[in-house]
C-alpha cells in the first residue's frame, strides 16, 4: 500500500521530496487537483467539494495514509476528511507556533499564505493561541502560487514581484517569515534576496512529516515496504502530470 500526497497543484511536491529523504523505501501516490487550482480565491464550500472528490479517488486506490500537503485544503477540509476515512490523515498548518517561539524579542513574524488560509478560523484560532504578544502579521501571496503552477522560477521575474508586494512593510522588523503554502518553498532563494539578511524562513514540512511517521507507528502500519516509486495523478490530465514531474525534479534541488 502507498502513502498518498494531495495538493491543489505542484506545491505539495516540495513536501513529497522531503518525505522521500525520510522514508525512501515507501511507495507514493501524488494527486494534484490541477483542474481547480488555485484554491486560495475560491469559496470554502466549493473547495471542500473538490477535496472530498479527490480523496474519494485516493481511498479507492487502497492507500495506507494521506498527507494533505496543502495548507488551504487542511484548513478547509481536514476535519471532514478524518471523519470520512479510516486511514491516518496528516494535515499541514502554517508554522506560526515555532516562529513565535524562536523569534528574537523585539522582532515580528510574517505569515505568507493564500487568502483562504488566512481568513479561515483555523488560522485565526492558531494565531490567537500562540501569539499573546500580537507579533504575527500576515500577507496573502497568490502571485507565488501562479508562478509555481506555471513553473516560473526565474528570479528576474519573481524578485521584482516580491519587492512590490513587500513595499509597504518594514522588512527589517521581521525575525521570521512563515511559508504558509507549500508552493512557496520553491521561492526560498528569491525571498532571501528581498528579506533582511538575518530573517529566518520556515515552513511546516518537517513537523508534518514527523507527524506522519508517528501516526504510521501508532497505527501499527508497516513501513519500508516499497521501492521509492511515485505515481503521479492529476484531475487536469496527462499534460499536467508531465508538469508535476518537472516540478518534482525542481523541488529536489531546493536548498534547505
TrEMBL record:
Spell out the catalytic residues: 70 (proton donor/acceptor), 181 (proton donor/acceptor)
Q: Name one GO biological process term.
A: regulation of cell shape
Its recorded reaction(s) are:
L-glutamate = D-glutamate
Q: Which domain of life is it from?
A: Bacteria
Give me the residues that bind substrate, please.
7-8, 39-40, 71-72, 182-183
The record ties this protein, via SUPFAM superfamilies, to: Aspartate/glutamate racemase (SSF53681)
What Enzyme Commission number(s) does the record list for this chain? Answer: 5.1.1.3
Q: In which pathway does it act?
A: Cell wall biogenesis; peptidoglycan biosynthesis
Keyword annotations: Cell shape, Cell wall biogenesis/degradation, Isomerase, Peptidoglycan synthesis
Q: What does this protein do?
A: Provides the (R)-glutamate required for cell wall biosynthesis.
HAMAP family assigned to the protein according to its UniProt record, in alphabetical order: Glu_racemase
> What name does this protein carry?
Glutamate racemase
- Gene name of this polypeptide: murI
Amino acid at each position: 500500500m502507498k502513502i498518498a500526497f494531495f495538493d491543489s497543484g505542484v506545491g505539495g511536491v516540495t513536501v513529497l521530496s522531503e518525505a522521500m529523504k525520510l522514508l525512501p523505501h515507501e511507495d507514493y501516490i501524488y494527486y494534484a487537483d490541477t483542474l481547480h487550482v488555485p484554491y486560495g480565491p475560491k469559496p470554502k464550500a466549493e473547495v471542500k467539494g473538490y477535496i472530498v472528490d479527490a480523496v474519494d479517488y485516493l481511498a479507492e486506490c487502497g492507500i495506507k495514509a494521506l498527507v494533505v500537503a496543502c495548507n488551504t485544503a487542511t484548513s478547509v477540509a481536514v476535519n471532514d476528511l478524518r471523519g470520512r476515512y479510516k486511514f491516518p490523515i496528516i494535515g499541514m498548518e502554517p508554522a506560526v507556533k515555532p516562529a513565535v517561539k524562536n523569534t528574537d524579542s523585539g522582532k515580528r513574524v510574517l505569515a505568507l499564505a493564500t487568502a483562504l488560509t488566512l481568513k479561515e478560523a483555523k488560522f485565526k484560532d492558531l494565531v490567537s493561541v500562540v501569539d499573546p504578544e500580537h507579533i504575527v502579521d500576515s500577507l496573502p501571496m497568490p502571485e507565488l502560487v501562479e508562478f509555481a503552477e506555471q513553473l516560473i522560477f526565474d528570479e528576474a521575474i519573481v524578485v521584482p514581484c516580491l519587492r512590490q508586494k513587500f513595499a509597504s512593510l518594514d522588512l527589517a522588523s521581521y525575525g521570521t517569515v512563515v511559508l504558509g503554502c507549500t508552493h512557496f518553498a520553491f521561492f526560498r532563494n528569491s525571498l532571501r534576496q528581498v528579506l533582511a539578511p538575518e530573517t529566518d524562513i520556515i515552513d511546516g514540512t518537517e513537523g508534518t512529516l514527523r507527524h506522519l511517521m508517528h501516526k504510521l507507528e501508532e497505527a501499527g502500519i508497516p513501513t519500508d515496504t516499497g521501492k521509492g516509486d511515485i505515481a503521479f495523478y492529476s484531475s487536469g490530465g496527462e499534460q499536467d502530470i508531465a508538469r508535476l514531474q518537472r516540478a518534482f525534479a525542481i523541488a529536489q534541488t531546493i536548498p534547505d
